[in-house]
Amino acid sequence: MGFALYRKRKTLAVYGVFCVLLIISVGFFQCFRRLGALDEMTFDEIEDFQALGDGSSRTSAASTTVKPNLPECANISSDEVDAVQRLSNETEENILANFPSIGPGGSWKPTDCVPRNKIAIVIPFRDRHENLMTFLPVLISVLQRQNLDFRFVLAEQLGTEVFNKGRVMNAGFIAAEKLGVDCVFFHDVDMLPQRTDVPEPYNILAGGVLSLTIKDYKSLNGYSNSYWGWGGEDDDMGKRILTKGMKLIRPEKRHRFVMLNHTRRRPNEYNPTMIFKHLDKTPTEMLKDGLNQPMWRLVNVMDKQLYHHVLVDVGEVPFEWTQRLNQYKRKKRRG
């Protein structure tokens, strides 16, 4: 699990890279540095989330127009952001009560300054409601305190079949683009910030949290549609980034994440044989396997109170994957 960003090899002056570095390295990273209380307690010991409040000069992005001739929002350093020390599995009602200015679709922007960027946080999702209720108040607090124009896009896979995270995230990206954002953050729902020493991230893996501009996500052709079950799509994205001559930028050690407790993945959803088979083909297949080949169907798109909800039908699992998954499951049993 890495927190992966990227930049072009030769120049940092292009708009897209500025967008990523501004929000993350100046804002996201530094705010997360202050969340040190998380590594001093277990999640079984975490108490109820305390209301953080969102300020009288804040409002939802959907409900109010920013006044003209306002100054550009300042960069907010970590020293100016209070630590979020208490988390819990909240309810939607409590979160909305604690953050009353959140607008439909989980949207918000400041009214006392002009945000530097308009972002969407795309959350690939299925069966993690408890994690979601822990995740949202933390992210809302951090993003509001950085004066960002943001909204959450919850991309949820329909049904109970094997998960296809790549297809879900591609569908979430399409929904985010229609909201007129500059940057998209793909953020796993079971990850929360942690400041202290953890192992170095993988060299190629671009998962956990990934930030891309609209233009550059399209140039990578989004995520692969071909990975079913647990693993592969994040490694594939890392290879796409490197194949396009971009470079992964990872955070300093103090900017790391802790994984929330969640239901264990089913053993038949891990298929290393098929994963490595597809990873070998990434450089040659990426231009025809991804965003430009929509192998999913949007079942429903609507604004809910805390997020823009996108329900996605990812289709049937190919026979080759089903066969390999069953073979791997039998092998593990014999193990």
Automatic annotation (TrEMBL):
Pathway: Protein modification; protein glycosylation. It is an enzyme of class 2 (transferase). Its main location: membrane. Its cofactor is Mn(2+). It comes from Steinernema hermaphroditum. Its EC number is 2.4.1.-. The chain crosses the membrane at residues 12-29. This is Beta-1,4-N-acetylgalactosaminyltransferase. GO terms for cellular component: Golgi apparatus; membrane. Residues 196-262 form the Galactosyltransferase C-terminal domain. The lineage of its organism: Eukaryota, Metazoa, Ecdysozoa, Nematoda, Chromadorea. It is found in: Membrane. It is a single-pass type II membrane protein. One of its GO terms (molecular function) is N-acetyl-beta-glucosaminyl-derivative 4-beta-N-acetylgalactosaminyltransferase activity.
